[in-house]
Amino acid sequence: MLEIIGCGTALITPFRPDYAVDYDAFRVLVRRQIESGIHFLVPLGTTGETPCLEDDEKVRLLDITNEEAQGRLPVVAGAGSNYTKHVISNIKLLDKHGADAFLVVVPYYNKPTQGGIYLHFKAIAESTDKPIILYNVPGRTGVNMTAETTLKLAEIENIISVKEASANSSQISEIIRNAPAGFNVLSGNDDETLSIISGGGKGLISVASNVAPALMSRLISLLLEKKTTEAEALNARLAPLYTGCFVESNPIPVKAALSKMGYIENILRLPLTPSNNATLDLMGKLIAELELS
Prior knowledge:
Elements: E1 6-10, H1 23-35, E2 40-42, H2 55-69, E3 76-78, H3 84-95, E4 101-105, H4 114-126, E5 132-136, H5 138-141, H6 147-153, E6 159-164, H7 169-178, E7 184-187, H8 193-198, E8 203-206, H9 213-224, H10 228-244, H11 252-260, H12 277-289
Parallel strand pairs: 1-2, 1-8, 3-4, 4-5, 5-6, 6-7, 7-8
Helix pairs in contact: 1-2, 3-4, 4-6, 6-7, 9-10, 11-12
């Protein structure tokens, strides 16, 4: 079973002034990620505004990602929904377009029990032979997937890891400590990555790496190589960017930053709206301080 470790970028989806997907800009962003040394790519996640994308747009974005990746690094496609049957349909659709694995979020809004969460992911895993990465982000879903549930799911062969964004350090430590061989924990929050990898985690699915892919992939490599002093220094340098990426709802600040850098138009689909001027100025300041281009 494929192992996915290191730094992966939760890719944004650029839009044109008419709100159509800007596929040319997306291709440029994917190339920049690969050339910057990112370890894997994650299109069609929440950062990519996937709830506001049509199926044909999702397919084209995944096709472009794979065209640029050319098998050199894994492509993990977001396929989550709060309806189990819909997730399975998403996977069947995207599997035809070269996804190496799927990122599936805990069902949001309907607040299932732990038993419901387990059966949801079990059914999804049984529907495909591709690897599944669980995604626990209670701040967005309204329900936390406990360590007990995660570890039970970890026994299923093609469930290979969890993206943990619960901010619950004791829960994350318990998962790392008791996980079966071959099951990894990935940080789901940039600002918690140093502690998670230092405690045995194997990587990060990052928002900040949309803006600073070379620095973020370097940070994760240093952590995995246990070069702690260098990693701590680089993490401290990047910390203001972590904060900046969430001064408004993600991906509003990241899109502001990439627009300041000239890669995209600062456009989002409703219900999200472009950043305010303060965020735009802040992201410009952070880009200058990190000497990004």
